[in-house]
Amino acid sequence: MTDTRPAGRTGDPRPGEHEFTVVSSTDVHIGRVVGLRIDEVAMPGGGTAHREVVEHLGAVAIAAVDDEQCVTLVHQYRHPIGRRLLELPAGLLDVAGEDPLRTAQRELLEEAGLKAERWDTLVDVAASAGFTDEMVRVYLARDLTEVGRKILDDDDEERDIVLHRMPLREAVQRCLTGELINGATVSGVLAADAVLNHGVPARPADAPWQDRPRAFAARKRS
């Protein structure tokens, strides 16, 4: 591959070689699910710039596809968007020490009332890498058994969830028409179709997760 990077000023690192070190960091808000900090970052020209960073616990989502190639979606209210969205079952990595796969298994049971015998890793999704470290790992769950949902007494939000069983082909089409807009859902649906119908291999369920966010979880433990 030809290197087409422009030459910098004498003494400057070549594009792609600068180390963006953090000179200082200031906490602005530390909440229950996210934290906001402002980092002062060394820039290639010799100065610094301030970057707002939203720290997040990270999450998992599950494309649960049955033997008839139908995927289970949840219809739930999302306050920042201001309406209900159709999404894959998902949940935060909010239990200290819990493996992400175990979190996915628990969330699939809690939100969709399903257990799966076969698990694979589909995709890792950066929610919006320009300002947050939030990452979502999407799993493919197969060989499903319906066991029923159990809503906890203190979980008011989940009382409003409605489950939809949708043909995977229809879900793919809804991604392309803009009816499904959640990032992990769009990525997971398209990846599930690639694996199940186009011969693309999935990763093992315990595949390494290099970019799993850890900064906010570390705050919660301290």
Give a written overview of the molecule.
By secondary structure, the protein is an alpha+beta fold. It has two domains: 22-56; 59-206, Alpha-Beta Complex (Nucleoside Triphosphate Pyrophosphohydrolase). The chain is built from four helices and eleven strands; from the N terminus they run E-E-E-E-E-E-E-H-E-E-E-H-H-E-H. It has helices at 100-112, 168-177, 183-197, 215-221, and strands spanning 22-30, 34-42, 48-56, 59-64, 70-78, 83-87, 90-92, 114-126, 135-146, 162-167, 203-204. The chain has a five-stranded mixed beta sheet with strand order 7-4-9-8-11, with helices on both faces. Strands 1-2-3 form a three-stranded antiparallel beta sheet. Helix 2 crosses helix 3 (183-197). The longest helix has 15 residues, at 183-197. The radius of gyration is 20 Å and the shape is globular. The model has no long low-confidence stretch (mean pLDDT 92).
Radius of gyration: 20 Å
Number of helices: 4
Shape: globular
**Series of secondary-structure elements, N-terminal to C-terminal:** EEEEEEEHEEEHHEH
Strand order of the largest sheet: 7-4-9-8-11
CATH architectural label of the largest domain: Alpha-Beta Complex
The share of residues in extended strands comes to 35-45%
Distance between the termini: 46 Å
Largest sheet: 5 strands, mixed
State the share of residues found in helices, binned by percent.
Answer: 10-25%
In the CATH hierarchy, what is the class of the largest domain? Alpha Beta
* Annotated CATH homologous superfamily of the largest domain: Nucleoside Triphosphate Pyrophosphohydrolase
Contiguous runs where pLDDT drops below 50 for at least 5 residues: none
Number of domains: 2
Mean of all residue-level pLDDT scores: 92
